[in-house]
Amino acid sequence: MKPKQQNGKRIKIVLAACLTVSLGLLAFNHYKPGSDADSNKYIKVEGQQEAELTAPPFVPKPVGDRAATKLVVHMEIKEQEGEMADGVKYTYWTFGGSVPGSFIRTRVGDEVEFHLENHPDNKLSHNIDLHAVTGQGGGAASSLVAPGHEKVFNFKCLNPGLYVYHCATAPVGMHIANGMYGLILVEPEGGLPAVDKEYYVMQGDFYTSGKNGEPGLQQFDMDKAVKEQPDYVVFNGKTGALVGDKALTAKVGETVRIFMGNGGPNLVSSFHVIGEIFDKVYIEGGDMINKNVQTTLVPAGGAAIVEFKCEVPATLVLVDHSIFRAFNKGALGMLKVEGPEDKTIYSGTTQEGIYLAEGGGIQSMPVGKKEVKSTKPKTVAEQIKSGKDVYGKSCFACHQSEGQGIPTVFPPLAKSDFLNGNTTKAIHAVVNGLSGNVTVNGTKYNNVMPAQNLSDEEIANVLTYVYSSWGNNKTNVTASQVKGQRNQIGH
Amino acid sequence: MLQFKIVGVVFLLVLSTVLTAQNTQSVAIKKGAYVPLYGTTDKKPVEVKAFNMDVFPITNAQFVVFLKKYPQYSRSNIKGLFAEKSYLSQWKSDYDYGTTNLSNAPVTNVSWFVAKKYCECQGKRLPSMDEWEYVAMADEKRIDARTKEEFNKYILSWYEKPKTYTNPVGKTFKNYWGVYDMHGLVWEWTSDFNSIFLSGESRKDKDTDKNLFCGSGSINASDLMNYAAFMRYGFRASLKANYATKNLGFRCAKDLK
Where is the signal peptide (chain A) (predicted)? Predict the structure, then answer.
């Protein structure tokens, strides 16, 4: 009995030892003894240079293999009016005149001399808390600066990673809600691996006195902010900051890196790119890399670095996959990938038929009572501009960015005989939806388009935009024409 | 003769109102108590004694009169110790506020030292922060409107309006005490503008200090929703006595005899 027991014990001990050693090995693969900061604080700096700052969606050039240096940053605070959405104005408080603020790029060991400059026309005092800073308030305690003044403080970059910075003057929430946040990158020695394209995207939630879409100058609404009920959730400070001709671009075969931050103040982002899979995610902007990720969480006051290679041409859609935020509150951006197709990776539709289990009746979007009145009638040019935004939100997903549609599934709007032949039919389709057989430019389509929950004016604008684009006949559709169709019962 | 007398009296009355307007009207503020957002560690009400407060902030025109009498405070004569470079920088010259600044707009870009001197030369003084806040918490009808949503919204909306320092005085609302422009025109100096950093007890001091930065931003605040006031305390805390800022003016107060 006794020897047997001992034997069993021995096996257990050996197993435990193996486990410990292998765990230890695993750990040593990833971590050096002691923290990065412990060793990085001894990195010597050479020379001095002025930091390059960039407005989103661009980032300064990589640090490469440069030595740690004394890096001088001049960051100017500006309180300025901007456009949150078409016709919706908002007074933003900014670092460097943009939301998010200027991108700062450093490397470990850099000694940053930070100049925070508060423009004389500004009303308020501000400061800055950089999450990359080790020290009281992340710099906030040393940087409270009155309008027309400048504060300077120094810090050493000890930990590599992607960090949020923000204003931390009371009331902190309001300063952040008005746009006072941005990213600072601390690259490891030798820099991050080279990629083909790098972009800077940051999510933020906004709280306006009026509802989403209500035109005019909107004020910050603190009740909504406290209740965490934003009217806008957007990338780069406004709806449409990354769509249309402002979309990000890449070519097939290129590797894209997005520095993705979340300023909050309240919401956590479920960052996802429709039509891609992240090859690599630097989780929370730190050292750990996860591979093959669909959606990554970006906490408020946090960041992530995502990388993916673009294999096929597509318009990739950046969203917060808390999806109503994307399609109803603005958290939507685009990355246009151009280049040759690869049918093995993605074929497009190869076969198409009809399947009717529950009947193919017309679906409709729930109708709210909103009928947003604009203050004055729009010119055709203004209609086209607004219509473009509506298109980006409501039509683009099926009819595609250049109105080309998707062959055999969604009909084209470009050079469309259906549209150009009969304006009334076009209005009718948007107002009431459309299903069953339609023939457009000689091709038959059989699908369902839901009735769109848009105001008369929005429909007029989007149709005017469509008619003015892609070789159509430039018909100007008015809100009253749309109203006329709305009042017709049935279809 | 009687007619002459009446005319004379009317004339005197008109003259005196004109003169007092020139001289800056002030009104009596009755004593009371209030709980400030910051500055009391025990959240007990602070007593404010009765005093006189100017109805309007000091204007460009009034300030020129002062400078002509005390030229050592003019832009070219001022000692750097008492006012930084931006002192009266929006003016055309030493004694000329130019055509872009209204005569009845509040004078701004004035340092605390000079504002204090101005009031002393009128036989007055700068209001204390408690006095200022006490008067500023009144709306048209109430002594304390701080919990009223509309009131806070009004104050907050000013933060988003650009260049209000170019507006004339007396165009915002007249509050319970008969005082104008406590909100909606410019920030104002108080005699002890940075005193909440100096409560005396060092450990508490530190905590109060941190309040204006991240983290504990609301722990010591007596009214969580009083965002509007947070801004004033934050702004004041960033000032130094020689600062001159475009959105910062002042008015005077006086002890009651």
Answer: 1-27
